[in-house]
Design goal:
Pfam families: Peptidase_S15 (PF02129). By secondary structure, the chain is α+β, with helices and mostly antiparallel strands. It is about 25% helix and about 20% strand. The chain folds into 5 domains: about 260 residues, no CATH class; about 120 residues, Immunoglobulin-like (Sandwich); about 240 residues, Rossmann fold; about 45 residues, no CATH class; about 160 residues, Jelly Rolls, CATH 2.60.120.
Length: about 900
Amino acid sequence: MNAASVIGRVGGLAVAFGVGTAVLGGNAVASAKPAADGSDTRASASQASETSGAADTSEPTTAADTDTGDLDVPADDAPDSDDSAAGLDDAAEHDGAAEHDGEDTDGDVGLPAANEDAGDAESDDRPLTSSRKPGTSDGDASAQVTSPVSPVSPASATSPTSDDDAPAETPDDAGAAAPATSPVRQEQAITWLSSPAAVAGRTGAASTPAVTASASVASPLLTLVENLFSPFAGYSPDGLPSGSPLSWAMAAAARREALVAGGPISVDPTLDFLDGVIYGSVGATDTNGRPLIYTLLDGPDQGGKITLNDDGTFSFLPDLSVVDSRGVENFTVMVSQTSVLMALLEQIPIIGDFVQPLVIGLQQVPVLGALLQPIIGYRVITTIGVDVDELVPVGAPVAFTTMVTSFDGTQISTNFFPASGLQFGQTAPTVLNGPGLGSAGDIDPTSETTVFDLVPGLVPLRDGGYNVVTWDPRGEFASGGILQLDNPFFEGRDVQAIISWVAGRPETELDAPGDPTMGMVGGSYGGGIQLVTAGIDDRVDAIVPVIAWNSLTRALYPTKAFKTGWATLLGLDLLEAGARINSQIYPAIILGDLLGFITETQEAILESSGPTVLVSSITAPTLLIQGTADGLFTLAQAVTNAMLLDANGVPVEMIWACGGHGVCLDPLNPIQTPLLVNTTLDWLDRYVRGNELIPTGPRFEWFDQTGAYHSSDLLPTEPDFYGEPIVTDSDGGFLPIIPILGGSGPQTQSPTPLIVSPALASEASLALNLEIAAPAGTQIVGAPEITLTYSGLGTATHIYGQLVDDATGLVLGNLVTPIPVTLNGRTQTVTIDLEQIAYTAVPGGTLTLQLAGFATPYLDLFQVGFIDVESVSLSLPTVAVGAGASAAQAGVAVGSAAA
């Protein structure tokens, strides 16, 4: 849409409100039109009757070249005006298109079309009359002027002369368009709309007097409309001209900044350079004391990144090119009020969550946002410039962002943060911190933890003396390429390119040329990429993968049961992030959700993504952290990785913490997060810095269902870790397999009653139950083993097993295991491990094994039939007395301290 069309639409709206004012209260405002040759010729009209009757219209009044600022209306967009309320309809229906026949076909009052012929040089002087006879030329002095409406306000400008009259006297700067942002033009627009005396004085109107209108009668409806649309309703700034609130609204619509000078919000941005990072504040205040909302409208214009906080403070990463050139980078922020209405609507359940995004969207609309400010809150838009040369001392290490070119030319958006206190000429070891799926690289220098509070953020890592590098993975956010789910041939090589780039930075400590002293941390997707990278690049000195995986196939498609709950959540996460992904991923999710299976090609993509066999190639010391309540990458994934690493003699330790992909419904020990952060830093200090005096702690640590902490010097992959299992047998029973009814999930019990997740298991009401008792204090850690002998008929390929803590009614870890069955009428036997658990038997406490025919984490509506279980045997793994003695004591001590 060209500029003339846009201005025409704004002008048409202005005229529509002007005609509306005439109908409601007796005020008429005419629009101005530029000439076809682009000169800034403007005109307005005023027609009225004297108080005693109709006005003398035998001689048109003289035109004044009125500078209306940004309210110019192209001639081709001039709407028709009527002598009745229909004029409002005409103006409202006008869409700004250049469609005029040059005549008012209905014979009523109207504005003649102008500039219909682009080559008509006389269009500048055509009269703007209230009415003309059909067939009369535009320059005909005999055109008749009538009084179409009730008396009008003198706020309207005088009518232009015909071609036969002397030209009107114009100011020296007539036709010279002022800059769009000129405060003078803003003031002229406002004054023209509100004060006829100012119009006459500023434009030097001809001596022919304007037609004087009688006083208009106050209208309750007009008062209502004016109060509704007044930009300063309930607020009268000093030093600004009074006038029609509708006129104020039109001025604001044409020029958003017109409201900034006198609005209730003021901004005073400040910037500072602190410990290698650029910080700042929008510095906004509100005279009414209302809460303010900060919205980033335009990101940094040179490729930088910004973290804008709720209080208007921010941190800023300039692009490396701006750092090198010591240039300036700009971004734009909108500061808006929380109006009373908005605050009330936000209290409405469910609907309230959508109020703020909707209001912020409306406030950004140039016309509508200005008109609705009294209702939805005022806003100010400000551009902030970050001058690197002014802020950053020459040579000082500074946090920045840049693009790193990967092996195939894909640009990977990479962020660099210097270690705290790092000075010019100094170097430090580096830590790469990878984000989770659907998340951008961490750019918040104040972050203490990330990924469910399981991974250290930028603060502890930088304070620990490490440069930190984060990045947007391939196919996500600012990076290019197609996401391949941490495939070693794509994402793995992307990180290799980042490592090589890090080796070339002057702030980087090196083990050898091209080999930086470095480690890696990160959770989920950022955990998987560590295992992949360390499996293909021995420049990585140590890794701490958190809630990562070994095999995506076994994580999402165990025993050919599709994990619909988590797969759907992952797909939605990718959609929300706008990720560009492998074309087979979404079809696999849809097929699995609908039919419960995926194709061999899709299964091969899962199998090729992530570490799998690469774990056996890792030489970097590895600290594995996994979640006891992780329903996506369960504890078994970490156990598999630990077993492979330990078999190859790689230093490995493991921690099981309450959390992960899911919801920790058990009591959370307050030492958990500090322990994870501190242990991670100790691991890096020991194996990246090479400080052998740093103890790394027990080989295995875990938190049980009560939140108590336990530890052992043995891994749960070692035979000596286990004692005698607790074995329970039962005769089983008959179980109908019916979709949805009585199965496991969705989980509705949580600290927040509104949280409901179909990906979490819950106690089933239709199930075969087997009660299990264990001596108080017994540590049950690992994978329970179940053996079923059964027969049955139906289409079902799985039933589902879970352990319920009878003391709380919660499924241990919120985890349910698909048990493959063959329902062909014959007697079958199956033995399988249930999901790994960490449970401490309490006095009088019991567990219940449940076998259910349906589970929402593995939603499959085609599973129907029945199963007759002849016998069931469950074996629970326990911690050996020797391995568990110190662990139990540690658990009591920490648990008591936490309590």
